[in-house]
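Researcher: Re-running this chain for the archive, since the previous output was lost when a drive failed. Same request as before.
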Amino acid sequence: MDLDVFVSVHRAEWDRLDVLLRRRRRLTGAEADELVALYQRTATHLSLIQSSAPDPYLTGRLSQLVARARNTVAGTRRASWRDVTRFLLRGFPAAVYRARHWWAPTALVSTAVAVLLGWWIGTHPEVRSSIAAPGHLRELTRPGGEYETYYSSHPAAAFAAQVWTNNAQAAAMCLVLGVFLGLPVLWILFQNMLNLGVGFGLMASAGRLGTFLGLVLPHGLLELTAVFVAAGTGLRLGWTLIDPGPRTRRAALAEEGRAAIGMAIGLALVLFVSGAIEGFVTPSGLPTWARIGIGIAAELAFLAYVYVLGGRAARAGETGDLEATDRSASVPTAA
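Model: Regenerated structure tokens:
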């Protein structure tokens, strides 16, 4: 594209759009139609310049012009309860459902890694001795030891808030750092599985695996599922950079990135539930079967939410991205 020629051909249209946007009085019907047509053409010009001959000054000017025109044409819309309802009943579950081919295998492989690490630690005394001194290991795994008192070491509300904050940060990091080809996501995921495998192996070696599972499963099922969803989505975001499909790399990354940000908000809500279970149910005096039952019920409820509501919304075309009216204009690409 010859940028100078392009600008000379279309400058009059941009200037006319700017004049219409500055009008103090109410536009006539013809002027309103002209404004809409100029807005659509200018949005197309902006996309062409961004993809073919990016110029910082011109891109900035047209971006401001298109944003002002969009606000004039569509009106400034504030978030409402309708947006919240759409997000919770359609956007978030659909985004999780669409990412299932990434997070479901991530969950299976990660769980297998944690089990193998636990088996390795539990069956090899030399590995356990490299983790901590024998006396410290006994203190960790004995009845009433550190593994058990960890869940009741702080007031339930404060503990739940701390757990929720830490887990939400980890999930957000998986989603955001996925843009770096997914490599940081794999490291975060491995660290989580290593911590789980160490606890599994140490408690199994002390003959207290049942106690360990009774402490971990009530909150861990939902918590780990949220982590797996975040990790799988982060990996998909990284893969988008490598293979954007029929979309341009910029458009693909923008679409998947916006959906990932929405998922970070939704997963924070999911982790709030798992944090509440960890803070109030895990250290409670309920029988083990009751605590595990609560964890299984929470997990099944989340999966039903994703596969029923999310599946239905995804089949109807929902992607978890912003509504079409809230997105930047883009040029169609060939499949």
